Amino acid sequence: MESGTFYVCRNINNRSRPPTQSRSKNEGKDGKQTGSRCLVLMTVCLGLICVLLLVFITLYITITAERDLKGNARFFIPNERKNWSESRQYCRDRGADLMIINTEVKQRFITSLVKERVWIGLSDSETEGIMKWVDNSALNQGFWDSGEPNNLGNEDCIELDPGRDRMNNWNDMSCMFEEKFICEK
Question: Band of the pLDDT at 103, cuts 50, 70, 90?
């Protein structure tokens, strides 16, 4: 910073002292210009701080959500193909159950991991048209593929097909079809 600029900023802050006759006209102009520059600089800095805060808050929320998902969800995908009921029994024999996907974060996370169709813990086998999770809770939010569920030929069990869409990839299927499955503890 130049010494003249420092002197002008110091004079702006110390307005109680009247200007001397030799400096009065130019100092007033310089002071206003420097004051304007200081305000612009402060405004830009404040804007940058706001942008940085927004970025940090977004990153914190994302990292926290992923950490909570990974920390709370212990899951595994057996290298076997079974129908929906056999898949559920396999999971239960190992202290787990078929996966419940009840958030968008979990849906995106699971879809990013699986490479082929898998059974999830959702069906309407008890009452047609009323989807329930394996813990008997009702479906609140679904991630259905276009036109699904369509109950084509008595399809009561739900699969996740990652080849269809990154987000909306659920399909109702005959519970007798054999495919991989995902268990969750």
Answer: very high
